[in-house]
């Protein structure tokens, strides 16, 4: 089964991880990479988890109430039956849930991904081959670079300026295309303000003719 590639905003949103081992640790790191507020619940947790700042660690058994207010939950224990029950509780509350290595209990899976600032590329094999998705991540890490991440942020920063200067949607698209083309051709992260306004004026003049 192919999973629908939806990107979800979890920044400052409560996410729960049940489990205290190294698998849970890796899931916590991914969630933190996207700005989540993470709570870990387990009777025992690895020192690596304890050493992470800005997370909540509850050294006890999971309780159903722990799911309250969560947008996302992860069952990362070695107990398959517990993971299944946890997933069912999360589903009943309408919470996106991942049960590690139990695809049938998941409503979402963790992809391999490359993240440069707000630019993210993710790879999924539908849970069939994590090795393949790791390979794709390795191959494409040379394409999705920090430079592109910076370009992505710049493109977002000019949107209000372009909207205020260009009313026509098709013309705005031309502006964005030309800006991106120029940045990539010149290996630049951003344009000088004068360059941007000159480019906008050029597009306007072309469309008047």
Task: Describe the protein.
Helix content is 44%, strand content 15%. It is α/β, with parallel strands linked by helices. It folds into 2 domains: 14-110, Rossmann fold (3-Layer(aba) Sandwich); 146-208. It has a 5-stranded parallel β-sheet, sandwiched between helices. Helix 7 packs across helix 8. The chain starts with 13 loop residues before the first strand and ends with a helix.
What would you say about this model in short?
With 209 residues, the protein is of the alpha/beta class. Helix content is 44%, strand content 15%.
Give the uncertain stretches in residue-range form: none
The span between the termini is 51 Å
**Structural domain tally:** 2
Largest beta-sheet characterization: 5 strands, parallel
Helix/sheet category = alpha/beta
Helix amount, in percent?
40-55%
Query: Mind telling me the CATH superfamily name of the largest domain?
Result: NAD(P)-binding Rossmann-like Domain
What is the strand tally? Answer: 7
Strand content: 5-15%
Kindly report the average pLDDT value: 95
Helical region count?
8
How would you spell out the order of helices and strands?
Answer: EHEHEEHEEEHHHHH
Overall shape: it is: elongated
CATH class of the largest domain: Alpha Beta
Radius of gyration: 22 Å
CATH topology of the largest domain: Rossmann fold
Per CATH, the architecture of the largest domain is 3-Layer(aba) Sandwich
| Widest sheet, order of strands | 3-2-1-4-5
Oligomer: single chain
Which features characterize this protein?
single chain, about 210 residues, alpha/beta, Rossmann fold, 2 domains, five-stranded parallel beta sheet, two-stranded antiparallel ribbon, 8 helices, about 15% strand
């Amino acid at each position: 089964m192919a999973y629908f590639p939806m990107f979800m905003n979890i920044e400052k949103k409560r996410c729960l991880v049940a489990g205290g081992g190294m698998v849970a640790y890796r899931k916590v790191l991914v969630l933190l990479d996207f700005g989540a507020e993470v709570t870990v619940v387990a009777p025992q947790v690895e020192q690596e988890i304890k050493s992470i700042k800005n997370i909540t660690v509850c050294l006890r058994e999971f309780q159903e109430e722990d799911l309250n207010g969560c947008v996302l939950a992860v069952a990362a224990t070695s107990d398959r039956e517990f993971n299944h029950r946890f997933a069912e509780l999360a589903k009943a509350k309408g919470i996106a849930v991942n049960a590690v290595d139990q695809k049938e209990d998941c409503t979402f899976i963790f992809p391999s991904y490359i993240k440069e600032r707000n630019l993210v590329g993710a790879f999924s094999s539908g849970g069939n081959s994590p090795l393949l998705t790791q390979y794709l991540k390795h191959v494409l890490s040379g394409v999705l670079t920090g430079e592109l991440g910076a370009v992505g942020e710049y493109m977002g920063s000019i949107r209000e300026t372009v909207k205020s200067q260009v009313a026509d949607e098709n013309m705005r698209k031309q502006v964005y295309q030309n800006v991106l083309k120029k940045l990539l051709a010149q290996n630049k992260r951003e344009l000088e303000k004068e360059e941007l306004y000159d480019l906008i004026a050029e597009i306007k003049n072309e469309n008047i003719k």
